[in-house]
Amino acid sequence: MQSVLSQSFLDYECILIDDGSPDNCPSICDDFSRNNTRIKVIHKENGGLSDARNTGILQAEGKFIIFLDSDDKLADNNTLKNLYNVIQIKETNVIINVNSIEFTDAGITSIMNSYSKDIVFANPTVIIDGFNKSGMYLAGCFFVVRKEYLLTNNLFFKKNIIHEDEHWMPRVLFKTNEITVNHYLFYAYRVGRNDSITSNISVKKLLDLLDIINDLLTWSKEENNYSKEGCLYMKEKAKALYCDVFKYSDIIKHQDKKAYYNIHKQLKNISKRIPNNFKSKYILLTRIIGLYNTELLHKLYIKIKNKHLNKENE
After folding, report:
1. Long-range contacts of 300-303, Cβ-Cβ distance < 8 Å, separation of 24 or more
2. Which of 45, 122, 172, 276 has the maximal Cβ count within 10 Å?
3. pTM of the model
4. What does each of the 314 residues of the chain score in pLDDT, given as a tens digit?
5. Measuring CA to CA, how many Å separate 229 from each of 32, 155, 173, 278, 279?
């Protein structure tokens, strides 16, 4: 909140969603709103991150939506000013902020800025190709989206799942023809926290990813709703997540054998919807990684997976 209140640009609305917080967050939120008319507080029963974001989308009065997670912050005092200037140049429905900072509680920071500066306005396929070449991770918090675009296309987050961004981003990317790239520093993403939502592998995370894979494969057939490139992206994203679930399933094998076998049963069913030339090499590689969990093998896995997906796209 301090990173928001310190912004040099002041024409914004900040909505704080108290999603049933059991600590002092409700009173802290109320204190912020009493001292600043730009801040609105919504207290609600716990419904998870997706429900909190959806509530914010519906309640927002501004033209564009930014998602700021509670453990992160805006990159610097001119983040919103720079974003406003980008919007004034060309008002597209979707803006992706490619330069962000990772930081730790110990104060260590690193800048993620390997994205090509030549890309300013482009179609979704070019944008994604730029992310793949740079090796950057695409997350929902890097998006700024026009509210009307979200409402018109029913682009809400799926409730009660983890990895909700993986379910939301493909639809956001491929319901538009052009995306703006913001090269100014934008987001400061906290890393290294063991209690964050995305920090540990769990049965629920893997089951939710399976749910997302099934939806992606369904959308990949909906050429009336998405472009040919969009459908291809949905299929390739599903393949990548399939590999991830297979790879990480061994982690929960000793925690919950029943869940482990259920996950592999679902993987088998999903595999029937994925081309055979894709499966064998990745199943073998992910099995090896599960047995010998080393950094070198993970790097090899990512390299081979990306090479295969890029080859299929060509």
Report:
1. 301/243, 301/247
2. 172
3. 0.85
4. 999 999 999 999 999 999 999 999 999 999 999 989 999 999 999 999 999 999 999 999 999 999 999 899 999 999 999 999 999 998 899 999 999 999 998 887 888 777 889 999 999 999 999 988 888 888 999 999 999 999 999 999 999 999 999 999 999 999 999 999 999 999 999 988 665 544 578 999 999 999 999 999 999 999 899 999 999 999 999 988 998 898 888 888 888 989 999 999 999 899 888 865 554 555 555 545 444 444 555 566 566 656 655 655 55
5. 45, 19, 11, 19, 22
